[in-house]
């Protein structure tokens, strides 16, 4: 790999890193013939990234040339987005408060050199901000208010803004960054790199370790070098060709940020940001199914103005759902008028809209996996022991979840499969898990899930390795299509 450190004026820089070329911005822009070939990484240290400045064009043209710039244009735009900065300030709130708690001042500046700070006590915060805004040289400004510390601004810094006393540390940080353990080289015969985002601590996991290994093995057979990554690898996303999210998604956590960033980087992404947004919101799903005349349990979108009508219109028992409920969490069953009133008020305190649905008791829910707008697998998810849902979050061990049975697609009633595919296709062409109930000969869609569970000996029980191969094949075809190539 050829690594280029691009600066506005090389004469002003004392930075000398073995194996890294110091290149003037004008040379990189004006002499493209000197910077050809595969595997070039560009580290843009220009003094400004403002629109149409040298620094902006370095990152823009690096992307056009197939070089991988740090920062890329997406990061440059993110650094200007105040609402996004506020969002990340909130997301990193605990770390910010903990890192700055000892300070007596009301304002604080944190300089970040290749993900590190001169004071070791701030390294975790510096690394977290570098992961969110991957740029070599950053400075974050914090202010202390009534609710604690808040990040007011974060931006790039140029060479003349680096204190003389920091230059030795900058050399050390840069040297350490470039000497860090590189990602493993692609497996022999691998054409593309696939990142699988997972949480090793998640319980229950979206995919267990044996399933994750099966994905990696299937990818290798198709020329995809699949690698497990965690939320700490955000800054490495640009090194991959595709992202497969295998931990529970939420618009409120890092999974959505990964999906959004990877999409902006041009990676093939499952689950894509639009699918996460659509599937996460039960209000959206309710309106979508209704508009397309797909049968669901009787459903009512509830707000403060119509809350008193829920009992009359829905009856009891009644199921209430937070808009972003998942894994049976944020879902309650009200059996009495008092319970109904209490739960509606509780849920509306945190959301302008919630969902009320009629209760349809069944022994199991159908789960139909859909990929590329076609059925992939079929399961019966049985209710947890002595419970009305698949998951019982008040129990542990065997009582936590119900049993699961996997069937061949052809052994599932056609109306169940057809309804599932129709519902999933309203969301997109990614990987979805559609939950349905069959009552009195009628099929009802309960919800469409992005990021469906795929675990060893459950979803793969019937078709085995073929399940993993089909998903990896979908990634391969999407990458080839994005790159304008056809398979030989």
Which short descriptors sum up this protein?
single chain; 488 residues; alpha/beta; D-amino Acid Aminotransferase, Chain A, domain 1; Rossmann fold; four-stranded parallel β-sheet; five-stranded antiparallel β-sheet
Commentary on this structure:
By secondary structure, the chain is of the alpha/beta class. It has five domains: 75 residues, no CATH class; 101 residues, 2-Layer Sandwich (D-amino Acid Aminotransferase, Chain A, domain 1), CATH 3.30.470; 67 residues, Rossmann fold (3-Layer(aba) Sandwich), CATH 3.40.50; 61 residues, 2-Layer Sandwich (Dna Ligase, domain 1), CATH 3.30.1490; 113 residues, D-amino Acid Aminotransferase, Chain A, domain 1. It contains 15 helices and 20 strands. The longest helix has 18 residues. The mean pLDDT is 90.
Order of strands across the widest beta sheet? 18-17-16-19-20
Mean pLDDT: 90
Low-confidence stretches: none
Count of individual beta strands: 20
Structurally, how many domains make up the residues? 5
CATH architecture label of the largest domain:
2-Layer Sandwich
Distance between the termini: 27 Å
Major sheet description: 5 strands, antiparallel
Q: The CATH topology of the largest domain, please?
A: D-amino Acid Aminotransferase, Chain A, domain 1
Gyration radius from CA atoms, angstroms? 26 Å
Class of secondary structure makeup? alpha/beta
Our count of helices gives: 15
CATH superfamily of the largest domain: ATP-grasp fold, B domain
Q: State which percent range the strand residues make up.
A: 25-35%
Highest CATH level, the class of the largest domain: Alpha Beta
Fraction of residues in H or I helices:
25-40%
Please state the overall shape, judged from the principal axes of the Cα atoms: globular
